[in-house]
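Anyone up for a design puzzle?
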């Protein structure tokens, strides 16, 4: 949304459709409506750019959808210096858009036009209060009625004819429709006139007045509106939008005589706690959704959230900087924080007085900033300065005085814009007062620009100390600082320190530091082994983003020539790349086998275990019977090499295999034993994978609440670590499908698809499409589900994936094909997968195939066989400990029983399914079962089969088409709605006519009636 352009500062919202809530603001909108309903007043407050106007506009749209009149008054900073400016604008808006009750005069029609956000900005929109959306108030209507003082005057419309003479005169003076007397307007008459206007306006019905930028209202207008609102009836409700001004006392915003100590001087009423709604920053997941909504890259949502602090406007600016970069920004590179993003940070910081900025710079330079530390470093007013900054939402202060910047972009901008002398002086002052020797050495090194070997050695020792303390991130930063502090004449030593820094950064998952160290090293005359180690460090921090690093792999292979140990390490990384980025598990297996052999020949059990683990993963995907034996070998080496909790890739894969085999109790018990050790000793990547796996296990077991909790933890850790959220969103899609919401599940799956496409991750792209297609099928969007699942089929076949237990798309695609009247293709798919599942012993995959095959039998009219098979399948799912699959089979059984016209049996199956889902906490499935009584079915058109027996001969696809045509749809309309060609519709309609023995659309409509 854009702010009002200059000269167009108010709108009346009319005939607007109800807008969805802005991203992450549904709960806040509910609170806003509750406050307006109970108290009639609400104050939206928060820092600039957090989206207050967006929330107000959404609330206004909802009010208008209920038939209320909505008046919008947007102020400008210059209004504070013009007495009566806001009140005059409000009067003019009423005159231009409202016909006075009881008058027959038609209102004048000023020109109506929509003002896009870009024009609003070009016209001088206030950047300090610009919200984060893209719509203007005009987006709520077919146009914005622009008016100021009409050429014929505000009184020519007859709007104010009922005002008494003195009040009319005072209002005319306010709007400059009459000359102002030497004594000015009559303040009492003007007060009463404004109050009468607003009261009369409510005679037309409920009115919502939105005042956007209440902090800019001039003192005279504030006084007039306070009086008018005090006398207004309850049917006039008010939303005020405020951006607090923490440094207002320095600007003297009001006219002479204003009492700065009055905290309510700018408010239109004295707000209570219930009236004030603070608009908070968005969570990391909401920032990701916002980026997707604006078609910006979401793969770095965690890093963008840290940089923006959840401020939507800052987040979008950073996202656009990344999108506009000439080359894609990799995970191992620093975020692009130039242009608009940096300018917005400067605007936020620029409002602070110079003394506050100097204090903030010291805080930005410190590792653990606090008010006490900054004061000791030479800022005696530190507490007062930081308190002012906190009021401006630049920092937050804890009870012990520690300082945290609300957005990472703020301290980086402070440091970026400070000159070298300022930064050096700040670090020197901090070095004298910090109480930690590690921090003192860091500040001393940053305070000088001359390399010094003695200082570099001290910094390297401090890095070792930080590592022993467990602070790997600080250790990585200090290791790089030690290398950069090494004089050029000690070239060999500098290169060795750069290698250490790159590897330390890899252990700390600091991709940016690893890339900095590697870039510096590769520009020097380093030996091949050092170049390989630096490149491997970058590859290890790349996460999913391996696609753009081909050149690094090539050079690593060249430099590792003749070094067996390094070649083994490079082959291991290539094995990972081949499956993730290239989607080639056979090539990945070959590289893993070579890596394991080389590592074993060098007596490196750690590397051999890692390579064997990758090999086992590929053997499983390719359907090899050797997978478990290879994995057992990897686990043996891993146990002998390191304690539990540290890089236990083989054990984690063992748990994943148990999940694929639906040995869920074993998988959960082993995972729960490993998880606390990994959290204490292991890497964040392993912790994320364990939470993700645990969520998948609980989803299959029917422990839906636990699944949602674990999936949420996986996402939170992913975003905090700055990794791509694609895999975590896939996990959340599974958990939401089980126990949350089908709509949220589809949303998370779509996000995962986008992130995986951005990263070039073939594995999770296929998985996320599967999750999306499954939800689309369950919710009845069969045509779209078929398209999505066909893409999964193409992806999996392109990757030569054989084992059907790793991604169970076959049964879902078979059901989608059947629903689209492609029964022969569905049967062929089931016939293809069943022998593979039997050979590999995937018993629960066979059960899923049985469910789909039973539906095929029902479509062929063999309903007795279908019901018998579904009954056995549901029982088998129950014995396997898969309650949600059991419930799904029972829903399918109810549909078949309905086709057999056995209403009681269908009702019994549905009740049993509902009981299963209720015990599991599977809310969306319970709703599906509860909304599917035996007479109404679980699919489109299922409600008429029992009452019209002839319809039982139709397939689901035919029944959907019959209902559309029976309701009057043309062949073209039905084709568009069902995503079919017109020829397919014609052929299918011919079969429907033959089955129902009808000859026209009218007869078909009659046949559909119960």
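Challenge accepted. My sequence:
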């Amino acid at each position: 949304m854009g702010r009002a352009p200059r000269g167009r500062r108010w709108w009346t919202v009319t005939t607007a459709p109800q807008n969805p809530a802005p991203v992450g603001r549904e709960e806040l909108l509910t609170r806003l409506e509750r406050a307006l309903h109970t108290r009639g007043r609400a104050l939206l407050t928060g820092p600039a750019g957090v989206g207050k106007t967006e929330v107000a506009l959404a609330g206004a749209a909802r009010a208008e959808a209920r038939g209320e009149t909505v008046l919008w008054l947007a102020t400008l900073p210059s209004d504070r210096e013009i007495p009566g400016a806001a009140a005059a604008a409000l009067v003019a808006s009423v005159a231009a858009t409202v016909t006075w009750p009881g008058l027959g005069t038609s209102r004048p029609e000023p020109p109506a036009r929509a003002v896009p956000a870009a024009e609003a900005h070009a016209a001088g929109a206030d950047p300090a209060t610009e919200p984060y959306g893209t719509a203007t108030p005009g987006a709520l209507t077919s146009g914005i009625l622009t008016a100021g003082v009409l050429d014929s005057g505000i009184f020519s419309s007859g709007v104010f004819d009922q005002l008494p003479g003195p009040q009319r005169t005072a209002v005319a003076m306010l709007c400059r429709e009459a000359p102002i007397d030497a004594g000015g307007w009559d303040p009492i008459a003007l007060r009463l006139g404004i109050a009468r206007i607003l009261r009369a306006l409510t005679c037309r019905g409920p009115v919502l007045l939105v005042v956007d930028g209440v902090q800019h209202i001039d003192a005279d207008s504030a006084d007039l509106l306070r009086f008018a609102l005090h006398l207004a009836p309850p049917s006039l409700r008010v939303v005020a939008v405020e951006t607090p001004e923490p440094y207002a006392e320095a600007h003297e915003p009001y006219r002479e005589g204003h009492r700065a100590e009055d905290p309510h001087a700018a408010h239109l009423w004295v707000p209570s706690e219930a009236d004030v709604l603070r608009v908070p920053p968005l969570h990391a997941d909401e920032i990701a959704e916002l980026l997707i909504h604006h078609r910006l890259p979401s793969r770095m949502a965690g890093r963008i959230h840290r940089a923006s602090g959840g401020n939507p406007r800052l987040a979008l600016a950073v996202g656009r900087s990344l999108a506009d970069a000439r080359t894609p920004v990799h995970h191992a590179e620093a975020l692009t924080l130039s242009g608009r993003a940096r300018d917005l940070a400067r605007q936020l910081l620029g409002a602070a007085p110079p003394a506050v900025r100097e204090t903030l710079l010291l805080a930005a330079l410190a590792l653990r900033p606090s008010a006490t530390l900054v004061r000791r470093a030479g800022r005696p007013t530190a507490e007062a300065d930081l308190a002012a900054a906190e009021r401006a939402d630049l920092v937050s202060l804890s009870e012990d005085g520690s300082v945290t910047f609300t957005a990472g972009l703020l301290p980086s901008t402070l440091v970026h814009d400070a000159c070298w002398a300022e930064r050096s002086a700040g670090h020197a002052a901090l070095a004298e007062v910090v109480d930690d020797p590690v921090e003192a050495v860091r500040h001393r090194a940053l305070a000088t620009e001359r390399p010094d070997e003695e200082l570099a050695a001290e910094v390297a020792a401090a890095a070792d100390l930080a590592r022993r303390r467990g602070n790997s991130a600080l250790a990585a930063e200090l290791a790089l600082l030690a290398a950069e502090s090494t004089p050029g004449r000690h070239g060999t030593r500098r290169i060795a320190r750069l290698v250490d820094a790159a590897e330390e950064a890899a252990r700390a998952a600091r991709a940016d530091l690893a890339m900095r160290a590697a870039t510096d090293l590769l520009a020097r005359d380093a030996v091949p082994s050092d170049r390989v180690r630096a490149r491997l460090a970058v590859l290890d921090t790349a996460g999913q983003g391996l696609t753009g690093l081909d050149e690094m792999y090539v050079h690593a292979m060249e430099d590792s020539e003749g070094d067996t140990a390094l070649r083994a390490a490079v082959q291991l990384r290539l094995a990972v790349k081949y499956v993730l980025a290239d989607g080639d598990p056979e090539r990945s297996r070959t590289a893993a086998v070579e890596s394991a052999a080389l590592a074993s020949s060098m007596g490196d059990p750690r590397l051999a275990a890692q390579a064997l683990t990758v090999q086992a993963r590929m053997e499983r995907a390719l359907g090899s019977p050797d997978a478990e034996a290879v994995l057992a070998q990897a686990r043996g080496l891993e146990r002998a090499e390191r304690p539990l909790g540290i890089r236990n890739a083989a054990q984690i894969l063992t748990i994943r295999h148990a999940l694929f085999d639906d040995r869920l109790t074993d998988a959960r018990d082993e995972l729960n034993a490993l998880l606390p050790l990994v959290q204490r000793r292991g890497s964040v990547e392993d912790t994320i994978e364990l939470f993700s796996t645990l969520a998948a296990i609980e989803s299959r077991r029917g422990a839906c609440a636990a699944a949602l909790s674990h999936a949420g933890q996986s996402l939170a850790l992913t975003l905090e670590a700055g990794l791509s959220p694609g895999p975590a969103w896939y996990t959340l899609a599974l958990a939401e499908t089980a126990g949350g919401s089908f709509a949220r599940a589809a949303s998370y799956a779509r996000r995962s698809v986008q992130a995986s496409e951005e990263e070039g991750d073939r594995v999770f792209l296929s998985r996320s499409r599967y999750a999306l297609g499954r939800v689309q099928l369950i919710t009845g969007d069969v045509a779209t589900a078929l398209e999505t699942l066909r893409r999964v089929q193409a992806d999996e076949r392109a990757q030569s994936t054989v084992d059907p237990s790793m991604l169970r798309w076959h049964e879902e695609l078979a059901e989608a094909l059947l629903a689209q009247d492609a029964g022969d293709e569905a049967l062929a798919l089931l016939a293809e997968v069943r022998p593979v599942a039997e050979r590999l012993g995937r018993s629960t995959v066979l059960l899923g195939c049985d469910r789909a095959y039973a539906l095929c039998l029902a479509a062929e009219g063999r309903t007795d066989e279908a019901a018998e098979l579904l009954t056995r399948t549901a029982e088998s799912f129950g014995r396997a400990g898969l309650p949600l699959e059991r419930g799904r089979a029972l829903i399918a059984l109810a549909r078949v029983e309905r086709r057999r016209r056995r209403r009681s049996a269908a009702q019994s199956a549905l009740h049993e399914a509902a009981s299963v889902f209720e015990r599991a906490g599977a809310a969306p499935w319970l709703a599906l079962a509860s909304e599917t009584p035996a007479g109404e079915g679980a699919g489109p058109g299922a409600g008429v089969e029992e009452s019209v027996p002839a319809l039982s001969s139709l397939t689901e696809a035919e029944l959907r088409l019959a209902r559309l045509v029976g309701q009057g749809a043309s062949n073209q309309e039905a084709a568009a709605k069902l995503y079919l060609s017109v020829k397919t519709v014609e052929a299918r309609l011919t079969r429907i006519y033959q089955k129902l023995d009808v000859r026209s659309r009218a007869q078909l409509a009659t046949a559909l009636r119960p």
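A detail worth pointing out: Residues 242 and 947 are 60 Å apart (CA to CA).
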